[in-house]
Design a protein that fits this description.
The structure is a single chain. By secondary structure, the chain is α/β, with parallel strands linked by helices. Helix content is 56%, strand content 12%. It has ten helices and five strands. Strands 2-3-1-4-5 form a five-stranded parallel β-sheet, sandwiched between helices. Helix 3 packs antiparallel against helix 5 and helix 7 crosses helix 8. 25% of the residues are buried. Pathway: Cofactor biosynthesis; coenzyme A biosynthesis; CoA from (R)-pantothenate: step 5/5. It comes from Aerococcus suis.
């Protein structure tokens, strides 16, 4: 039976690094962010619904979603963000369920489901048999985000504040990967986890 492992974290916590390492170890990874991009490609029904709500100003000249423009609209407007999520969520969930079904039919023992807002979304959380949180202290998260994205203190704080705190997520997780030191330490934690799970 396929075990579905939910992987989450916070912005600049290192979740992508963990996800990439799982791929290197030949585990199938479903990236919810990539699925979200796929469902709003031109001619997809989700994009048509979003344009109906927000107008063609959120499209590029090529008819693709301008994620930056949509982001500017929804980041500071919770009501608009909720509208966009309400449109996209069912399409994302449907595609992920389809992908999980195919991987299960292929006999995969473990599938990693990489979802940034895993705990915040009951429907994604319900798909998982176990969960992993990639954790760093808040100060480390803030400093890494500022260095990576060249944000001001206020910009970085606002983006971190838009997600649940990592300290809250770590309390809810079955496993926690501490990414506050070196990449080698992080990889060792993943290897140890895999050693304990590959015989499920």
């Amino acid at each position: 039976m396929t075990q579905i492992i939910g992987l989450t974290g916070g912005i600049a916590s290192g979740k992508t690094t963990v996800s990439e390492y799982f791929k290197q170890r030949q585990l199938p990874v479903i990236d919810a962010d990539q699925v979200a991009r796929d469902v709003v490609k031109p001619e997809q029904p989700a994009l048509k619904e979003i344009v109906a709500i927000f107008g063609e100003k959120i499209l590029t000249k090529d008819g693709e979603l301008n994620r930056s423009k949509l982001g500017q609209i929804i980041f500071n407007e919770p009501e608009a963000r909720q509208k966009a999520n309400d449109i996209m969520h069912p399409y994302i969930l449907q595609k992920i369920k389809s992908m999980l079904g195919m991987l299960s039919a292929n006999g995969e023992p473990l599938v990693i489901l990489d979802v940034p807002l895993l705990f915040e979304s009951a429907s994604f959380y319900a798909l998982c048999d176990e969960t992993i949180v990639v954790w760093v202290p808040r100060e480390t998260q803030l400093n890494r985000l500022k260095a990576r994205n060249h944000y001001s203190d206020d910009e970085a704080e606002a983006r971190i504040a838009s997600q649940w705190p990592l300290d809250k997520k770590r309390l809810m997780a079955d496993s926690v990967f501490d990414n506050s030191t070196t990449k080698e330490s992080l990889y060792q934690q993943i290897d140890d986890w895999l050693a304990s799970h590959m015989n499920i």
